[in-house]
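ugh ok fine here u go
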Amino acid sequence: MKIAMLAPIAWRTPPQHYGPWELVTSMITEELVKNGLDVTLFATMNSITGAKLRGVVSKGYEEDQSLDAKVWECMHISECFENADQFDIIHNQFDFLPLSYSRLVNTPVITTIHGFSSPRILPVYKKYNAHAHYVSISNADRSPELDYLATVYHGIDLEQFTFNDRPRGDYLLYYGRIHHDKGAVEAIEIARKAGKKLIMAGIIQDTGYFDQFIKPHLDNDKVEYIGSVGPEKRDMLLGDALALLHPINFNEPFGLSVVESMACGTPVIAFSKGSMPELITPGYDGFLAKDIPEAVELCKQIDNIDRSNCRKTVEERFSKQRMAADYIKLYQKILK
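structure:
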């Protein structure tokens, strides 16, 4: 089976720090190769993969601000579809734009919908609904106006996350992009009211939000911001935390940081929105809160969570091996 894996090009695949779509694309690609599939990864040319690598741009447009994102996205997508007849399946990880090429080729296209950035992009998905094959990453992120082939939860590489039964830190962790959607301000308030130090890690996606609402609280004592972190630092931060705070202000499609935290044995306290009820089993591997006061009270119950349960959840439900196996079954279904 020959697969064209179409990655986004905002960042390298896999990303060095931030880049959740590129990260998931990389894990699927490498597992497909391990399963004996002939995979060509269409990504930035500095990407690292065991598959065949094809691309038109040297690095991601978020890594090189001189690049015009739309220009290189069009060049990148067309490179894949102009060679569509070389493949049995095109797996689109690149949002809605590649769908506009899908009727121009005979090769079936499966699209993983990583979330809807806005309701305004729905017309594209609706136009190709009867022709394309859509996969949701959680049941919560499905549009009632679309048909879906399946829901496939993201998986992670468990070998990159060390289980820690006895965290050495006495802190709560906020791990994600600094943005209102992710609840950075709410995390600060929860930690303050719970009487715990908060460490914050992640890219600053909204500079105005950071300067106005986050920066005034930073004192390197009760609230510390350490920027974006790589795999080794991430592993230590997650494993040594008492809990991950995830007080999101939007209906998050999945939430890789939640699964990564649990892989280290660290329970998650999240607002019960979007996919969170599908990822977290309250009282077993974390807690779901409706608001800040409830999250503060749940911080007092963190010690009641058996950290081995958190790891077990990921091993059973969110491994990259399970994710790849699910996609292989879908490829076979489409080809039949």
